Every structure is written in structure tokens, then in C-alpha cells.
Amino acid sequence: MADATDRLTVDALIARIVRDSHLASDRERDALRRELADHFEDAAAAGASVGSDALARFGDSDDIADGFRRAYRRGRRTLYAAKVLAAAVAATLVALVIQLPLHLDVSARAIVVTPLYLLAVRVTVFAVLGAVAAWELDVDWLCTRLERDPVRLVVACLTLFTVLSAVHAYRGMQVPALRAFVGATTMVVVWASSLAILSRSDRVFLHLIGGDT
Amino acid sequence: MDYDREFVTGTVSLLILSLLGERAMYGYELLQEAERRSASEFQMKEGTIYPALHQMERAGWLAAEWRDSESGRPRKYYALTAKGRRQAASKKKQWAALSAAVRSIVGEANG
């Protein structure tokens, strides 16, 4: 009898949480109902006490439903799009600032930006958008935080230096090796800074949808 | 031990990411594993883990699938995605730095 009463109490709790979570589809509601029912089934199978103790251990149903509402709230896609856009803009601005000192001509009376800066801007924007795409599409090998892995950092710099040198040679451009190396290193810094910004934006996004509990 | 909520805030996602970094688990299994490893010191309100799991799944840090558990019953298993692995590494690093800094202050204060 007690078991049946406990079962009804648990069922009522689950129904309340599922109802108050305001999930959009029947499929999501069914999956949540099933997942929560499994929890109590596992607790009972593990020999944990049921009834009021189980409910107390589970926590306040309003808090839990509130957590689900935040996870599934409307506007989340808009928030996600805003996050990607904000991260891309921030990463691009930072990248352009990183590139700027390399393209300043201080030999003239006034400090001017060299014509090559326009080319650097195009390449940089392309690189940043590539980093954003790799991050959001979860291309793991492209998303290594290079600043935390010195070996990969050096390998990336040397690889990019080789590629840049080959491109310069192919196009018949006379670019000193040191300048090519600095350019390659700068692109790696741009990539690393973009990933750092994307990582931070992910954390902010999760915080906004209530995930950092 | 009952912990201040402010201490626990922010650590749940770290614990989830750390445990799932070892293998895929379902919600109750995660809770049991956290309790076992902390010798029952770490006990949270069990129901709060589920919104956290769903939020991380929707953020792309976790992937979920229904499959048979060891008991033969189907359970919703969560596993880290590549993005989740990166977040786990980042959070662990932050936690190590923060806990060392706090320990150095609190430890000194306690003499």
C-alpha cells in the first residue's frame, strides 16, 4: 500500500515538473518524463528509501522546472545566433588590431597603414570566420587551444610559415623569410585569440541559458 | 555536509564534465559516481542535475542517446562532445588555479 502511495507521489512530482517545464513538443515531454521516472526506478533498485525521503533528496520541483524552462526557453536560437555573431565580430576586431602593428609604416612623417593591410584584413577575416565555423561545427583538431600546447603552437607556426613561403614563391613575391615568419606567427595568434573568444562566449551563453548551476 | 549554495554554484557543470570525460553515464549513475568518489561528502539535490544535463546538451557540450544500461533497462546516456571536452579542460584549469588561490588565502588565515 505504501509502495503504491509512494509511486503515486513520485508520478505526481514528475507530472508537475514536466508540466511546469513548458517543453515545446510531446516528444521532449515524453523523454523527460521517462528520464525522471528512470531516476526513481534506479533509486529504488539501489535500495534507497522512497516516499518523502526520495522527494526531499530530489529537491524542489519548482527549482527543477525553472531550470528546464531556462534550458528550453523561447528565444534560445536567437540568443545562440547573437552569441555566434558577437563572438565573430569581437574576434575579427581583435584580429585586426593584432594585425595592425605589422602594417604600419612609421618611416614617413605620419604613421600610415601600408597597402598590404587590406590584403591582411581579407585573410584575417577569412581566418576568423574559419575559426568560428570550426568551433561551432565542432571540428576538434582545428580547435586546439594552441597557447596551451607549446609543441602544437610551434608546429602550427612552422607549417603556416611553410605555406606562406610557398604561396609567396608561387606568386613571385619577394617576401623576406623573417617577415613571412612573423606573418605566420601573427595568423596563429589571431586563430588562438579567436578560439579564446569563442570559448568565453560559449561560457557566457551557457550562463545566460542558466546552465552554470 | 551541507554546503552553501554559492559554493556549489558553478561546480556542478565541472563535476558533470569531469565524470563524463571518463565515460558516458546516465543521470542517476552520475550522482552515484559523484557520491562514491567523494565518500558521500558531495550530495546535491538529485533533481538539479537533470536541468544542468539538458542545458549542457543544448549548448552542444554533451550528446545524449537512449541505450540499454548494464541492468538491461534503457537509459538516457550522456557523453562529452569535442566542444564539451574543451570546456572540461578549460574548467579544470580554472578550478585548479582558483582552488589553489583560495587555499593559499584560507590556509594562511587558519595559520
Molecular structure report:
The complex is a heterodimer of chains A (213) and B (111). By secondary structure, chain A is an all-alpha fold. Chain A has eight helices and two strands; from the N terminus they run αααααββααα. Chain A has helices at residues 2-21, 26-45, 52-58, 61-71, 76-99, 116-136, 150-170, 177-208; strands at residues 104-105, 112-113. Chain A has a two-stranded antiparallel ribbon. In chain A, helix 5 (76-99) packs antiparallel against helix 8. Chain A is elongated, with a radius of gyration of 27 Å. Chain A starts with a helix and ends in a 5-residue tail after the last helix. With 111 residues, chain B is an alpha+beta fold. Helix content of chain B is 57%, strand content 13%. In chain B, a hairpin with a 5-residue loop joins strand 1 and strand 2. The relative contact order of chain B is 0.15. At the A-B interface, helix 2, helix 4 and helix 8 of A face helix 3, helix 4 and helix 5 of B.
Adjacency order of strands in the biggest sheet of chain A = 1-2
Largest interface: A-B, 44 and 36 residues
Helix segment tally of chain A = 8
Instruction: Give, in spatial order, the strands making up the sheet with the most strands of chain B.
Output: 1-2
Main beta sheet of chain A, described?
A: 2 strands, antiparallel
Helix content of chain A: over 70%
Query: Uncertain runs of chain A with pLDDT below 50, 5 residues or more?
Result: none
Number of strands of chain B: 2
- Gross geometry of chain B: globular
How much strand content do the residues of chain B show? 5-15%
Number of strands of chain A: 2
Quick structural overview:
The complex is a heterodimer of chains A (213) and B (111). Helix content of chain A is 73%, strand content 2%.
